[in-house]
Amino acid sequence: MKRVKLFMLVAAMMSLIIVPAVQAQPGGQRQGGQRGGGQFGGRGGQNNISILQLLQSEKVRAEAEIFEEQVQEIRETVDKIRAEARANQGERPDFRNLTEEQRRELFDKFRKSSEETQKKVNAVIGDVLLPPQMERLEEIRLQILGTGALLLEPVQKELKITDTQKAKFEEITTGTREKSQEMFGGVREQFQQLGGDREKIQALMAEIRKKMETVQKEAEEKILGTLTAGQKEKFTEMKGKPFEISREELRPQRPQGQRPGGGQPGQRPGGGQPGQRPSL
What we know:
It is built from 11 helices and no strands. It has one domain. 60% of the residues lie in helices and 0% in strands. The relative contact order is 0.17. By secondary structure, it is mainly alpha-helical. It is globular, with a radius of gyration of 21 Å.
């Protein structure tokens, strides 16, 4: 059991290291109407980062000069929107007894419902936050995404990325993905051979991290190399003043044993257990 858990940890680490150059795909997700196309609601997924994710960080809120009252209003309204959406979904169907056609229809219904909820959340955040606050959040979002932002459609549109450049982006990301899969195809076997030797496991994980960082850096350099001098300058301008924060810092932390979405009702940002971030 311990071996399985440790291998899963290695696999998870590998999947996180190849961001953003590999995971983000040209086109990206549907975006909002702010500069660069920020995805306001939802969790953002691996390919993106949502404004709600950014708002969970006290460090980000301070940088964007967002008031506590604004965060509270957004949280309360979004909670209501999500509660209404869950209520409208009704009882969860038994997927095992559904035909393929019924499943497709159900997934399509869920997708449309999710998009509608997303629009409502976007509207709330757009109404509550001031333009300068949204602009700074968008700058921070692009900084965290790095070269991955260049694979999102709104950013490509603003930078006037050509079809030739988009094809090159796809070639680079595909090649990097294939190289990574080939490079680490035997990791599982290596891991199994180590048994429960923790020191050797940690050494293997350090080696994996170093290799993946090298692969990521190479991919990022190739993607940036496809830009013109003007596009590079514009992209730097879009990211605004440098701000240091990692994706890991954006992950909500919960006390041990607490279920996702837990915590005290109406709890204000900065409250709760030490290190716990507010969930939006």
